[in-house]
Structure formats: C-alpha cells, structure tokens
Amino acid sequence: MEPILQVRDLTKVFKRKGQPDYTAVDHMNFDLMPGECLGIIGESGSGKTTVVNMITRLLDATEGTIVLDGKDITNLRGRDLRDVYRKMQMVFQTPTDSFDPRCRLGDGIGESLRNNGWSQSDTKNEVIKLLGKCGLDPEFADRYPHQVSGGQCQRAAIARALAIRPKLLICDEATSALDVTIQKEIIQLLSDLRNQHGEALSILFICHDIALVQQFCDRVLVMYKGKLVEQGVPDEVIKNPRDAYTMRLIDSIL
Known about the structure:
Low-confidence stretches: none
C-alpha cells in the first residue's frame, strides 16, 4: 500500500532583513498511510503550522518534496492546484475561518459542489446529508456563522471539508479553540468519520495536546524547533520517551 502523503526533507527557511535566516522546518520526513490518523505535536513555534502551510501550498518549500496520492505537488501553482484541493481539505483552529460571515453555512458547505457542476437541488440535498453526518439538523444550512456556537460551527466546517470527498483531511489545532466538552464531541465525530470512510480518508492532526493525540491518533510525530525529534505509537512515545523535549512535554501534562 502506497502512502497518501509523502514528505521528504521538507525545509522552510525564512529570510530576515538585517538578521540571520530563520529555519522554521528542518528536513522533515514522514509518510501518512490511507486510513491513518497521524498526529504532529509540539509547542507554539515548533514548526507544525509551517509544515501544514507547505503541504497545502500556502507556503513554498525551501527544500524537499511533497507527494500527494502519488503526485509531486511541491511546486504546483494556480490552476494546477485545483486537483490537489479535490484530494486535500483543511479544518482550521477558528471555526469561522472556514466561512464567509455574509453567507449561510449551507452556502459555504455546498460551495465546492457548485464549483464542480452540481445542480442547485443536488447540492442542497448533499448539504443536508453532510450536516446530518456531522451531527447537525438541516435547519443549520440557513444559519450564519455568528448564529451558531463554536462547536456547531466546527461541525459545519468539517462538513464543508468533507463535501468534495477528499482523501486527506488536515486538522490544524481544530479543537484548541473549543472547551473540553466540545473537544470530546469533535474528536468523537472525527473518529466516527474515520470508521465510516475507512482507507478512503486519512487525517493529519496538528495539536499541542499530547493527551488528545494519544486518544485519537495511530502515530505521533514530535517537533521541536523545526526538527522531528521523535515518532511512534502515542502510547509508546508517552510511556518510553527518548528525546529530552518529549519528556518535558509529557511531564507538563502529568
């Protein structure tokens, strides 16, 4: 079985006028297999979000390669990225970032379907199905982002990300802006979706909470100052950390 995502020697160096260059990500290597949930953890500034921004092509890599579903996407731009975004979608830290505040949630969820030629009636029916899959009643299609709670908006954001049926779902701190109870509900939703989709859906889960990663992910990568310092099954990494930074990270939650 081939990985859905392959990252090789991925590096990002930021040029700073009058100051030394800053290496935000330093030769990162990992694979994500079909149906797998892979967590990336580390403190703020460790390079997690920079990795995501390069994978989603919001940032150019300084070095390295990114292969999605067998295709090198490292240097793709413009129209060539359309096919990429059919296979890869993102759920953001702040739920409202996924929606235009002037548009109803249903319009945002159905946007990618309309862009791919779906009729108005078919889009409406699919939006209702997606809302139901994510635990929301059909009436939420007519609400605006400011009219729902943070947890409800994040459920709608997940529905929006799933509309195009991506193979890769990237969750960048998707639960960190929510209270603990709602966090558990969103993690349960993502777990249910994994069970429903099987190998058709892989998840890259960016998080700073190692306990949450232990609960949800199959494997975990630990980043520190732009480098991958440890990786493995979450239970094993937590019980037998090898890197000093991982030990400090675990001690901070015990």
